[in-house]
């Protein structure tokens, strides 16, 4: 959910979530427009944690990328999916003109939950596409000395993920052993960013030290990115793509191009009958849906990449 919050906050289910994108001066990197990093948290019942419990809520105009490092999450959506997301498995949900889903820690679950949820903005030409969900259990590995590199979305050095994309983009998980170093071949026409999810990393020629919880924007024009894990094993995400030049209106769980797009999506979702017709219903979810909050008093303005 986008509510203009930067930095760390606690979601209603007590899972600590760090909002890394959008940031104040950085709205998108390629078509990546939202990055939440959560955990690792203890989600056992001792302590009373219910783990992740996100009731049915909608999305429009974007793709969600669910990528776990530990634990599992049950995903159900209005196109009939009911799947268990696990580490190493990509859950890609294309909202297009509208989808709704729930995300819940299953009753029998591993003790820890650690993952990211990322959003990819759909280009205007594709944002009314039909909703779909894909689960990818086999993702290609890029052979690189010194690192284990898994291509989650898009392509890296010619190695392509099977997941559906709508713009030139890359998302990869990079793991480096303590003291290790790797040179990642990247596309100079893409802008890139690095997010560290475990340990710390040094990136670039400088190098720049990147800690957990920091969104490190690297710009474009590089054909190689040197990454080092100085003292402990490091796991990071490389996110990039062709700079996304369309201006977006991102509000709550919707992406549109105008205030009217958002108002319509909000109105339809918050009316139970209209929502069932437009978004469908999430299987086996009879409890309360998550309703969109009140719109802000000020107009929602379309914003560009760095706005
Ligand atoms: Mn969602």
Q: How is this structure best described in words?
A:
This protein has two helices and 24 strands. A seven-stranded antiparallel β-sheet has the order 1-2-3-10-5-8-11, with no helix packed on it. The longest helix is centred in the C-terminal third of the chain and has 12 residues, at 259-270. The chain is mainly β. Residues 57, 59, 64, 101, 253 line the site of manganese (II) ion.
Order of helices and strands: EEEEEEEEEEEEEEEEEEEEEEEEHH
Strand-residue fraction? over 45%
Supply the number of helical segments. 2
Mean pLDDT: 92
**Main sheet attributes: strand count, strand direction, barrel closure:** 7 strands, antiparallel
Number of strands: 24
Radius of gyration: 19 Å
As laid out across the biggest beta sheet, the strand order is 1-2-3-10-5-8-11
Low-pLDDT sequence parts = 9-13
Please tell me what the overall shape is: globular
Q: Tell me the span between the first and last alpha carbons.
A: 19 Å
The kinds of small molecule bound in this structure are: manganese (II) ion
Q: What structural class do the secondary elements suggest?
A: mainly beta
Helix content percent band: under 10%
